Amino acid sequence: MSVKLMTAAFVTSLPTTQKFVFVALCDNASDEGNCFPSISTLCKKTSLSERAVQGAIKRLVEMGYMSVAMRKGQSTEYTIFQPDEWPKLSTTPASDAPPQEMRPASDAPHPRTTCTSPPQEMRGTPAPRAPITIIEPSSNHQGNRQKAQAPFSTDLLIREGVPDDVARDFAELRKRLKAPISETAVKGLVREAQKAGMTLTEVLETVCANGWRGFKADWMKGGVTKRIEKIHLRTKPRSGIASKETDFWRCGMTQDDFEKFEDLLAGVGEIYGKTLSEFALSLWWGALKNYDLAAIRNALSRHVVNPDNGQYMPKPADVVRMLGGTSTDSALIAWTKVDKAVRQVGTWQDVVFDDPLIHRVIDEMGGWIEFGKKTEDDWPFVAREFETRYRGYASRGVTPEYKGVLTGIANANNSRLGFDCGKPVLIGESERFALMDAPVFAAVKRRQEEI
């Protein structure tokens, strides 16, 4: 949302419909004026029909307030010009304005007693001191249109010293994820690279290798750093698209989460008037470190408000029971694994989860590759659908048929071209893979041994 553009839009002299649509566009725009709302979104914001919204946009473009760039296969991009480039509207009354009653001045002579001279022909020459207003077209409009047509340009990256080939790979990844390369996004990557002690080029190489949408310096700390070193991109002779070396990718907490885990338990203990010793804290950590911090926080929150036993300080066994006790808890844990895997491993590689229901649900929702195409706006809806489907299977207590390996982008192309496929990434606890169907797990192990 651009406060600057919205503030300026509110004081324009546009007609009501056009002004309402213009304010809604400014509400979606960045400070540079770029936005991508759909017509249906604008209709919801303005309570106008599609025809009215489209007509208002067409009129705004004709008047010089904005430009529109149609993008094949993607949403339309609107570029709102800066307020100093907006045209100055005249103050002529609207055609439907009510007529004004004209009265003569109090000292004017009566028309029946005064002779008036015939009307004189008036020339269009202005007074010598009258100001002359010339509205010239802004020279920036063409530049704005060019910017709207190139949301995945590598210019911003090359300006930061990124090599051409790395910039092109990153631009292709962002295009596939429908995430434009904006100046704000590049500044954020530079800032996170500095926090991680890396160059921007190294960050982009890591992002491309893992198929990530963005980058956070926290992802490169502790155990995550080791894992990324093992999932590095390497090119093999005659191997088609580059494959990845992989290892077990464990879900749960890392050592970097210990401080947050300690604060969480301290807060719970404060509710019950208890203080945990270092020994007790170490027992809690050993019992729950294989679970995700978000799932633990959720379980503790539900225990505190439980009318049956919420009056007592929970024990680690209580939390473990809550985490695995119901289909809702299981669905939350499963989604946490999937969410982390998409963000930190990416959909470039094949993956194998330690839970067969995850495989079945992901396959029903279009496959592992489709998950990588979802945007941040889509993600809450994807989570809701995943958890609903997962709960349905979990409540039946029966393991359905499922694919042993969820195929990623690299091996999908390698298989299509007849090249060797890389190892899958095993996500979860190694002990739980033994619970999978023997033929499926044997096929996974065979795939790993072939590489």
Largest sheet: 3 strands, antiparallel
The structural domain count equals 4
| Poorly predicted tracts of residues | 139-149, 222-249, 447-451
Give the proportion of residues in helices.
40-55%
Assembly type: single chain
Mind telling me the C-alpha Rg?
31 Å
Approximately what portion of the residues adopt beta-strand conformation?
under 5%
Describe the global form. Answer: globular
Structural class: mainly alpha
The counted number of beta strands is 8
How many H/I helices?
Answer: 21
Strand order of the largest sheet: 1-3-2
What's the mean pLDDT score? 75
- Give the N-to-C terminal Cα separation: 49 Å
Order of helices and strands: HHEHHEEHHHHHHEEEHHHHHEHHHHEHH
How would you describe this protein?
A hairpin with an 8-residue loop joins strand 4 (233-234) and strand 5. The longest helix is centred in the last third of the chain and has 18 residues, at 327-344. It is built from 21 helices and 8 strands. The protein has 451 residues and is mainly alpha-helical. The relative contact order is 0.07. Residues 139-149, 222-249 and 447-451 have low confidence and may be disordered. The two termini are 49 Å apart. The protein has helices at 3-10, 16-28, 39-46, 50-63, 141-149, 155-159, 164-176, 183-196, 200-210, 223-230, 258-271, 278-288, 293-304, 316-325, 327-344, 356-364, 368-371, 379-396, 409-417, 430-433, 438-450; strands spanning 34-35, 66-69, 77-80, 233-234, 243-244, 248-249, 351-353, 425-427. It has 4 domains: 3-85, Arc Repressor Mutant, subunit A (Orthogonal Bundle); 150-220; 255-323; 329-450, no CATH class.
